[in-house]
Design goal:
The structure holds two protein chains of two kinds. In chain A, helix 2 packs across helix 7. Chain A is an alpha+beta fold. Chain A is about 25% helix and about 30% strand. Chain A has twelve helices and 22 strands. Chain B has ten helices and no strands. Chain B folds into two domains: about 130 residues, Rna Polymerase Sigma Factor, Chain: A (Orthogonal Bundle); about 50 residues, Winged helix-like DNA-binding domain superfamily/Winged helix DNA-binding domain (Arc Repressor Mutant, subunit A, Orthogonal Bundle), CATH 1.10.10. Classes of the chains: A alpha+beta, B mainly alpha.
Chain lengths: ~600, ~180
């Protein structure tokens, strides 16, 4: 179906391109923090009386209470952060990362390549990859609310189910643009933004120093935030977080984003003694490798559903990591409880985290803050990422002058016609485009089999299937057990030494059908390629041997599609979304319309 | 032959953060439903086109804010569409903030394009667009029953529930659609 506003599509593409160039706008703070919500003051006051009673009813084990008291005392002495003087900026440096986004296709194609149809690009790299996005944010906020924010966002790590998928990604990713920093000036008057609400400096100074009152303030903000999330996104994982989880997020925001007085900071730590349902761990590491103590609670994380392996939620442990010696908050992190072998994520991996590198007062927006507790400048590079497993990717298929294998010549008359040498297609082959699928292409096998009014051209060609690319060292596949790894290495070795297998492929130039191949051994299986993005109608493509003049495809819902065959190529459209466009049964018809063979799909 | 799993609307939006093709594909999927929604709301093709441009510009501008964990892409996009419509009505002119922010120019439309857009008024695409906003269970039941005209027993088998549950989902979904269509007009 053609677009009604093609000009708008062009404008949006241009805007998307421009946006990608400068895309590093301040990111939302993933899910580790609730949105900073303005508090309904009356509501907050109404809640206070109720909360104080329940708060004092709590109480922690002596170890955690002692650690929190130690942190409170250190904070009170000003070790965590010094007070802000008039005219100074509150400086924070935070690294946030999230590894829950699934991408299912490769990085952008090189700018010089002829633009393939959008479908072609997605079809060529269909394997899901789990992407880590990481943002370094620095903020300088003065007592009048003015200041500067600087962000650098990057996608440093990706996790793949199969090593070949990693190689596919890397082949494209090497050409992707690097991170771009974005710098913004904050106008005055906005105040300090935190989960406790936007607060002026005077309001920050007036925050309670009594632990019970501070807890009441935290709980009111958490309840308000929870209510708002449940209203906006009922049933979502965020909405199902416990009140304690939300409270831990409010606490983190207060400790990091606000220039709290030492007494208020101490009150926050003492308030934490009364949080119900949290577990205390004396010795943990934060994502930057720093040692601290943690309060944790069980949680779950939703992955974007791009493959069966990642659909649904995974159990995590949400931790708030602090340094009892200095009273500094180090990080919030969500650690995977179980590994996800299908994408190589080990148990204990911080799938989401905010690491608070440093916060404190500085005199100018040109300067960063160096910790005054003697620990020195924290190392910024020790952020967990995928092991470095760079690879050059597979070589381009060789163009070979040998005759086409006789079995294929016998069964597919299209190959017996004189071949063609379309420069554009040869250029794409030489450019390495089919390297993952094919090791070689028979020069004489390239045949134009269809042209569309829209300018797309479909070619058939014969090649040898490419052997799987090298698996890579063991450390590149943290999710695989040793036994699995050995098994995969052996399987790969067998595949590399197996006799090369000739396949018949169809490729569409200038359209969205992409590239798919058929082995002669599978000619009577129904496993057709489907195209177009999910919306009906889908285009179904198949290759059939000589003697089949038409195909009658049947669907589970009772519909039937009669499709003609030309040059061994079967193409038809069906009013179903692409994933369901595979027929459940097919009848091959001869030129007189008689059924010569009936096939059923092996997995309907 | 290798069959391909086509990306969902949500996956396209996530991919669009880094790839203009993915956003273009998302646009191609939702162009007609959004245009139809606005044509029904304002009755004029050129205004509908401008509002549509603003919606997609706003969507592009706030891609980071889309969280697949929190809801469907269609519902998110139509949430933007409702806001754009409401703000435009409040101000008495078509909202263009997002387009200006994204540096997008003015759309030029010829008579043929306008005719094709206004033809959406009668095409029923508006109802299909609103379908995107229904809960999954209701949407599947309505698509199976009303769009594909399958019988209740058959749908019940596919959705692993009883025929009476399918009837309830269809009737509730249709009632919700009617309410939304009245809201939109």
């Amino acid at each position: 179906m053609s677009l009604l506003l093609p000009e708008l599509e062009r404008q949006l593409r241009a805007a998307a391109r421009a946006r990608r160039g400068s895309e590093q706008r301040p990111l939302r703070r993933a899910r580790l923090r609730p949105p900073a919500l303005a508090l309904a003051t009356a509501l907050a006051l109404a809640l206070v009386a109720v909360i104080v009673v329940s708060a004092i009813g709590g109480g922690r084990t002596s170890a955690s209470a002692a650690a929190l008291e130690r942190a409170a005392l250190a904070a009170q002495r000003g070790l965590a952060a010094p007070s802000l003087a008039p005219g100074q900026y509150w400086y924070t440096r935070t690294i946030q990362a999230s590894t829950t986004g699934v991408s299912f296709y490769g990085a952008p194609a090189p700018a010089s390549a002829p633009a393939p149809g959008a479908g072609a690009r997605l079809r060529r790299l269909p394997a899901p990859a789990l992407i880590q996005t990481r943002e370094l944010q620095e903020a300088w906020v003065r007592t009048d609310g003015s200041g500067r924010v600087r962000n650098v966002t990057e996608s440093p790590a990706r996790f793949f189910g199969a090593p070949a998928d990693r190689l596919r990604w890397q082949a494209g990713a090497a050409r992707a643009p690097g991170p771009v920093p974005v710098d913004e000036t904050l106008p005055g008057g906005a105040g300090y933004r935190s989960p406790l609400g936007p607060l002026s400096y005077a309001q920050v100074l007036a925050l309670p120093t009594d632990p019970a009152a501070m807890l009441a303030r935290i709980r009111a903000a958490a309840l308000s935030s929870q209510r708002e999330i449940r209203r906006l996104a009922p049933g979502s994982p965020l909405a199902e977080q416990s009140l304690t989880q939300v409270e831990l997020q409010v606490i983190a925001g207060a400790l990091v984003d606000l220039p709290l007085t030492p007494a208020a900071r101490a009150a926050v730590y003492r308030a934490m003694k009364y949080l119900p349902g949290v577990t205390y761990t004396a010795d943990v590491r934060d994502p930057l490798g720093r040692r601290g103590a943690a309060l944790s609670s069980p949680g779950s994380i939703a992955f974007i559903d791009a493959s069966g392996a990642l659909s649904g939620r995974r159990r995590v442990t949400d931790e708030l990591v602090f340094d009892p010696r200095s009273g500094a908050l180090l990080a919030q992190q969500s650690l995977l409880d179980q590994p996800i072998p299908s994408v190589g994520l080990p148990a204990g991996y911080p799938v989401q985290y905010s690491a608070y590198v440093v916060s404190g007062s500085v005199d100018t927006t040109a300067e960063g803050f160096v910790s005054r507790t003697g620990a020195g400048r924290p190392r910024l590079l020790a952020v967990p990422s995928a092991p470095s497993c760079e690879s050059a990717g597979p070589p381009a298929p060789r163009l070979v002058g040998a005759p086409i294998p006789s079995t294929l010549l016998r069964d597919f008359s299209v190959l017996r016609r004189p071949g063609e040498m379309p420069a554009q297609l040869l250029g794409r082959i030489a450019g390495g485009e089919f390297g993952f699928e094919l090791a070689a292409v028979f020069r004489s096998s390239i045949h134009l089999v269809r042209s569309t009014p829209g300018g797309a051209r479909d070619y058939m060609l014969v090649g040898y299937r490419a052997a799987p690319p090298p698996l890579g060292p063991r450390r590149c596949l943290p999710g695989l057990s040793s036994a699995q790894y050995r098994h995969d290495v052996q399987a790969q070795r067998r595949a590399r030494h197996a006799k090369p297998q000739a396949v018949l492929c169809v490729f569409e130039l200038g359209g969205s059908l992409g590239f798919s191949c058929l082995s002669p051994a599978d000619v009577d299986s129904i496993d057709y390629a489907t195209s177009d993005y999910g919306r009906p109608p889908a285009t179904v493509t198949g290759i059939v041997p000589d003697g089949v003049a038409a195909v009658q495809a049947s669907y589970p819902d009772g519909r039937r599609v009669d499709a003609p065959v030309a040059h061994n190529l079967l193409i038809y459209r069906v009013g179903l979304p692409a994933p369901g466009a595979q027929p459940s049964a097919v009848a091959w018809l001869d030129a007189r319309g008689h059924v010569i063979r009936r096939l059923r799909a092996s997995s309907p | 032959m290798v069959a391909t799993n086509e990306p969902s609307d949500e996956q396209l939006l996530v991919a669009a953060l880094h790839d203009e093709d993915a956003f273009a594909a998302f646009y191609a999927r939702f162009e007609r439903p959004v245009l139809a929604f606005f044509v029904r709301a304002v009755g004029r093709g050129e205004v509908a086109a401008d509002l549509t441009a603003e919606v997609f510009a706003a969507a592009l501008d706030s891609l980071e804010r889309f969280d697949p964990a929190l809801g469907r892409a269609g519902a998110w996009l139509f949430g933007i569409a409702r806001n754009v419509l409401a703000r435009s009505r409040e101000r008495g002119r078509v909202e263009d903030r997002a387009r200006r922010r994204m540096g997008m120019g003015v759309l030029t439309l010829d008579d043929r394009s306008l005719e094709r857009i206004e033809a959406l008024l009668d095409s029923g695409d508006g109802a299909l667009a609103l379908l995107e906003e229904l809960p999954d269970a209701q949407r599947q039941a309505i698509v199976a029953r009303v769009v594909h005209e399958r019988d209740y027993q058959d749908i019940a088998g596919e959705l692993h529930c009883s025929a009476s549950v399918v009837r309830k989902r269809v009737s509730r979904g249709l009632a919700a659609l009617r309410t939304r269509m009245q809201e939109g007009s």
